[in-house]
Amino acid sequence: MPKELWKGNEAIAEAAVRAGLEAYFGYPITPQTEILEYLSRRMPELGRAFVQAESELGAINMVYGAACTGVRVMSTSSSPGVSLMMEGLSYIAGTEIPAVLVNVMRGGPGLGNIAPAQSDYNQAVRGGGHGDYPRIVLAPASIQEAIDLMGLSFDLAEKYRMIAMMILDGSVGQMMEPAEMPEMMEVKRKDFDWATNGAMNRERRLLTSIYLNPLDEEKTNLRMLKRWKEVQTNEVRYKEYFLDDAKYVVIGFGTAGRVALSAVREARAQGIKVGLLRPITVSPFPYEALEQLIPQAEAFLVTEMNMGQMLDDVLLTVRGRVPVEFYGRPGGVVPFHNEILDEIQRLVSGPLAVQTDPRESWLTRMTA
Amino acid sequence: MATPNNLVYERPEAFTDMPTHYCPGCTHGVAHRLVAEVLEEMDLIHKTIGVAPVGCSVFAYNYFDTDFVEAPHGRAPAMATGVKRVLPDRVVFTYQGDGDLASIGMGEIVHAAARGENITVIFINNANFGMTGGQMAPTTLPGMKTTSSASGRDVETQGYPIKVSEMISTLDGVGYCVRRSLHDPKNIRLAKKAIRTAFETQVRGLGFSMVELLSTCPTNWGMTPVDSLKFVDEHMIPAYPLGDYKISDAIKQIKI
């Protein structure tokens, strides 16, 4: 297919349609509403299900119901709406069925604002809903990547009977870029042996997240963890830039990673041996890729559009062996490349502490 | 076991063999049986997906021999919407109590009805939260004692009962909305006819259908099963009048 100019949110919607989306349930919230609007036109014209729900609670439970039948289904929302969906996500996880959710993140907490942010990393990656459950979380940095990951989200959700969530900040949702759409996939209902589709000539099926006997729930938890180990082995995705000879390593996902890449290029032009690791799957996190950088790294710089959330995953991996510094812009602020370039230069000029919480020194600098 | 020649009553085919967990005298069992009989009579067992609620009937899925899913508290109408929209030729019903439907799930039920979702809702009104041990529900009668309204529901501070059928019947998406009672054989027969009509409404694509069933909760009401049935007759029915709140013209034509 030729490249076309796509708006992020509409590209996500069309990519989902082409990946075989059979049902969409959503609720308006900025900055993702264009997905809902686009699909309100597109789905009916293809004879597929579209409902504007009464709330995000309604939307996620419609997703839950449709997911139980084994069709490709998704919802999309933005931070406050995703908080409302956490109940449903926990149930979907506990029922071990595939579902896809896109969070076009905005500044928070609370009502916050409608500017791009990455402050729902912990909510997405660590859980958010109640109970013990793993989930796949993908973080695109461009519209093309969002398109590509959309199809992958459905594949992964089905393969592992798990929630696949795509988190992107509002800027990826709102901006326009040239991108290439995949071909339209033929919708083929798979004959899953768990789907409650009321089909004749078989034993009845039950889908539930209730395990009243704690030993059964424990067994379920362990089964999910075992499946998660497979995900960790097979599905880690990330991008490396200029890392071969890098002594300094910047780590950032989504838009923060993309801005960091500009800064890394400028630093390289100045002769600084710096590279970038950009996780694409933030869950499973690329711990191994990061581990392999530790022998060559003199320092890491984690950059995020939040107060340091992925930072904890980096600290867990590095465990004090190399200094880790942090630069974040929370609240809906997108960093400029020269801010990150300044941080890279600070890294090079040192001195850097290994033992302190990088958030502390960052906070001191931010509030000075 | 050989079938006796004079067999006049047996378990409906739409039931599994599992005995229910309901308290003695509770009318959930009666309501379950009526739904099961209707599914069997209409030959719908193998194309039905039930949606169980949170509450005493959380285990409804153990008793019906159909596909079943189990919804979060109050969300059954949303879940049923998701199922029905992708499988419009299947039969989808929710079975919900008054805590589930009229309290936490009020948003979902109203909007499913307003959209005219082609699903059937069996709504059990026993004026309290049964499973958690008899707390006040939106349907608890004024002055009625519950574990969270120990001196009786005080409408000044705890508000008034919600009349669900009256409210739902105002919505244009609703095809069929009636209230029946399970307190005596005559009313049980009328309830069954209503449940049949509700499923007929769905099968014919005539919009949202709901049957509210006044029910007993002897354990939490602190009454014998017989006294509970009397309580329905003497106190519940005056507060929640039985009747046809909405029957669309097309549904009136249905001959059963």
Describe the overall structure.
The complex is a heterodimer of chains A (368) and B (256). Chain A is α/β, with parallel strands linked by helices and 368 residues long. Chain A has 2 domains: 3-234, Rossmann fold (3-Layer(aba) Sandwich); 238-367, Rossmann fold (3-Layer(aba) Sandwich). Chain A has 13 helices and 15 strands. Chain A has helices spanning 8-18, 33-45, 56-68, 79-95, 121-126, 143-160, 170-174, 214-234, 254-269, 287-291, 310-318, 337-349, 358-367, and strands at residues 3-7, 23-26, 49-52, 73-77, 99-105, 136-138, 163-169, 176-180, 206-207, 238-241, 248-251, 274-279, 281-283, 299-304, 324-328. In chain A, the strands form 3 sheets. Chain A has a 7-stranded mixed beta sheet, sandwiched between helices. In chain A, helix 1 (8-18) runs parallel beside helix 2 (33-45), helix 1 runs parallel beside helix 6 (143-160) and helix 3 packs parallel to helix 4. Chain B contains 11 helices and 9 strands. In chain B, the strands form 2 sheets. Chain B has a 7-stranded mixed beta sheet, with helices on both faces. Chain B has a two-stranded antiparallel sheet with strand order 5-6. In chain B, helix 1 (28-41) packs across helix 8 (185-203) and helix 4 packs across helix 5. The radius of gyration of chain B is 17 Å and the shape is globular. Chains A and B meet through helix 3, helix 4 and strand 9 of A and strand 1, strand 2, helix 3 and helix 5 of B.
Write down the CATH class of the largest domain in chain A: Alpha Beta
Q: Mean of residue pLDDT of chain A?
A: 97
Give me the side-by-side strand order of the main sheet of chain A. 3-2-4-5-7-6-13
Rg of chain B is 17 Å
How many E strands of chain B? Answer: 9
- What is the percentage of strand-forming residues of chain B? 15-25%
Order of helices and strands of chain A: EHEHEHEHEHEHEHEEHEEHEEHEHEHH
Low-confidence stretches of chain A: none
Measured as a percent range, the helix fraction of chain A is: 40-55%
